């Protein structure tokens, strides 16, 4: 059996780098934003008024990604602040992905500025893993003008951990035999999927490093962190991850919605209300398109801009709002450690024409009633407006969001 070779490629300060390139190439400016204290941020008056990316000189002022723009300006009054230029960012991302296609067809675009490459079947065509990673890194810089870090290992987790080692513009390996030396001494917050709240619980147990988690009794972790989450981070601390590098769904293969919250939330009741609002929108879009989904994914981003997602394949395809909501709540509970959330989203994939779906004999009667309810609600809203009928939980002043997020906007992931 071939040894897996996985690359994780991550753009250094992506939005800031891409904005700097735009200004140099398109606007013919001579000043490079990457050489001065600068940051990409949004509108201060809105929730998007946070730091999305910062330059290396800005780090000297302790400016952090995800903090409010106003707070960053207090730390550095001379900070050069520029708004995001998302159309150009997408162009830069697509150009980078095209370079990856020269090396392997097995690419998973993890986000706009990072991707996993499975090099197992093609590495022999090019050379050693480190040599090829360096070649990709140099091509991106020479052809596109920005830098990346590349992590190399035998699975996605270790490759991602390696790419976060010393930056910028470097390649790092983290093979299983290097875990004890390179990963175990790191603080527990450096481990993927360990948020602030989980780290605090671990520290209360005397766990300070990733190595401490790896060598901790699994039963102890599970008793304090839960069965699934305790097992997950114990596996991760030991470098165990069998997830495949899979091509992400194209835009026409799913329906989803997300929301940047008006304030951070850290309790399940508020988070579940957000999921209900998103489920209203996503379910309605599926029904509008006369399709059903076989897979539901919940995506969250905390106040430190750490992003997580969790998905499940359904036994029976659905477009029912209540089913999407209840499933999403279960997924959230499995991945969230109560670290304050800033963004939440639901994505449905593996779409099928609902004319050809097979109903479960156990749920058909209940689902039939729920489907009729959804149809009735859709008809009322289509005729009298989205706000003509709401669930009671959204009528209180404490409601964290609107009852149906972006109802009339078609948003596909």
SSE blueprint and pairings:
Elements: E1 6-11, H1 14-25, E2 38-41, E3 51-54, H2 56-59, H3 69-75, E4 80-82, H4 86-100, E5 107-111, E6 114-118, H5 129-144, E7 148-153, H6 156-163, E8 171-173, H7 179-182, H8 196-204, H9 210-214, H10 218-225, H11 227-237, E9 255-265, H12 268-288, E10 291-302, E11 307-318, H13 321-335, E12 341-353, H14 364-384
Parallel strand pairs: 2-4, 7-8
Antiparallel strand pairs: 1-6, 1-7, 2-3, 5-6, 9-12, 10-11, 10-12
Helix pairs in contact: 4-5, 10-11, 12-13
Mean pLDDT across all amino acids: 86
Proportion of helical residues: 25-40%
Biggest sheet: strands, sense, closure? 5 strands, mixed
Cα Rg: 23 Å
- Poorly predicted segments: 356-362, 407-413
Gap from first CA to last CA: 35 Å
The strands making up the biggest β-sheet line up spatially as 5-6-1-7-8
Structural class computed from helices and strand pairing: alpha+beta
Give the helices and strands as they follow along the chain.
Answer: EHEEHHEHEEHEHEHHHHHEHEEHEH
* Number of helical stretches of at least 4 residues: 14
Per the principal axes of the C-alpha atoms, what is the gross shape?
globular
- The number of strands is 12
Content of β-strand? 15-25%
At a glance:
With 413 residues, the chain is of the alpha+beta class.
Architecture overview:
- With 413 residues, the chain is α+β, with helices and mostly antiparallel strands.
- Helix content is 38%, strand content 20%.
- The chain is built from 14 helices and twelve strands.
- Strands 5-6-1-7-8 form a five-stranded mixed β-sheet.
- α4 (86-100) runs antiparallel to α5 (129-144) and α12 (268-288) packs across α13.
- The protein is globular, with a radius of gyration of 23 Å.
- The two termini are 35 Å apart.
- Residues 356-362 and 407-413 have low confidence and may be disordered.
